[in-house]
Amino acid sequence: KPQNITKKMNHCKKLSLMLLLAVLPLFLAAQQAGSLTSGELEKIKKSVADDEATHARINAITNNKIQELALNRANVGTVDKYISHRVKTKGITDQKSSGRCWLYTGLNVIRPQVIERYDMEAFELSQTYPFFWDQLEKANLFLEGIIESADKPMDDKFVEWLLKNPIGDGGQWTGVVDIIEKYGLVPAEIMPDTKNAESTGWMSRLLRRKLRGQAMELRQMKADGKNTKQLRTAKVEMLGDIYRILALSLGEPPAEFQWRYKNSSGDVSEIKTYTPKSFAKDFVQVDLNDYVMFMNDPSRDYNKLYEIEYDRHMLEGGNWKYINLPADDIKEFAKESILNNEAMYFSCDVGKQLNRDEGILDVDNYDYNALYGVDFGMTKAERILTNESGSTHGMGLVGVDLTENGKIRKWLLENSWGPSSGYKGFLI
């Protein structure tokens, strides 16, 4: 019947249209400018030659660790371990499985001056004590950021950044200064490391989880019409939970303690009672605010002061500030500092060219270009701009090796990976 034929024709048209709509994206994708054609794929595949040398490379790389294969044998054994000028320091610290290198470095810069001033047999400052207060202050900084941005949408960039980074165990020099000035210091034996200080992973996860939940509570209070004063009252109660997590994980910080030390002759000092702030005042005797941070960042203009917003450890603390200088200028400052028996806080991108077995940092340690037959070359500015490189690890710069006419051969770094790591706990 004509009506049935018309219905079947309309049905076929619908099926044809549906099929066309289904196939069209595939057709458009194949025609998309920049998509790989079969001819281009064949050209790309020719980058791997079918010869014995390539087969040997494939066998070697697929069955071994890349860094071991890339070790530049011609560079091994070319660096001696002698350092002509060293800061007088004793002992190697170990941050274990934590990101507290910034704190170890800062305290290890202070430590040699204390050892020399009091002629100590050995001495180490507690890293757990300032770390406790660092975590509480970072929690407060985060919650204040949430209060400040409570009326902004969840997809606001600042809100997103806060919630992605509520707290961490990393840091930098200004955090060392601010925490010591506000809370003081104690010797290592007064507040030693705990398991959760040495391995911060799970404690940090739980702190992040709790802080994110508290952030949502504060945002809801703001949505319900509560004012800033009410939000801050709630924040103080919330920080009680953070303090509890820290106290149960790290132990509670001492408000007062008794302590004495032994000098290099074996004599024991008189026992005294200290608060953490009085101890810091008596033993550090240095205005930490007098220190200035220099960095070498060729992606930015030199001889200018830069400040990284919100990169600090406490609300009232200082942001990360540095003067950008050419590397050769910084080297001269570092040399003079070490010759004056003053260690320097030092940070670099430690992992990429470190020979851990030898304890040597050298840009020629590994030759990935030769291993893969691919040029991996980038300038330092390009590496910084593309996030290929950055400041990843802090150490104490404690030695410089000089020629007879005062030219720099190499440097010595006091690391915080324990005495069995690198060259007796040091890197060259």
Care to describe what's here?
Helices cover 46% and strands 11% of the residues. It is α+β, with helices and mostly antiparallel strands and 428 residues long. The strands form four sheets. Strands 1, 7, 10, 11 and 12 form a five-stranded antiparallel sheet that branches. The chain has a three-stranded mixed sheet with strand order 4-6-5, with no helix packed on it. Strands 2-3 form a two-stranded antiparallel sheet. The chain is globular. The protein starts with a helix and ends with a strand.
Structural class: alpha+beta
pLDDT averaged over residues: 94
Described by strand count, sense and barrel closure, the largest sheet is:
5 strands, antiparallel
C-alpha geometry:
globular
| Strand composition percent | 5-15%
Distance between the termini: 94 Å
Number of strands: 12
Number of alpha- plus pi-helical segments: 15
The proportion of residues forming helix, as a percent range, comes to: 40-55%
Radius of gyration: 29 Å
Give the helices and strands as they follow along the chain: HHHHEHHHHHHHEEHEEEHEEEHHEEE
Unreliable stretches covering 5 or more consecutive residues: none
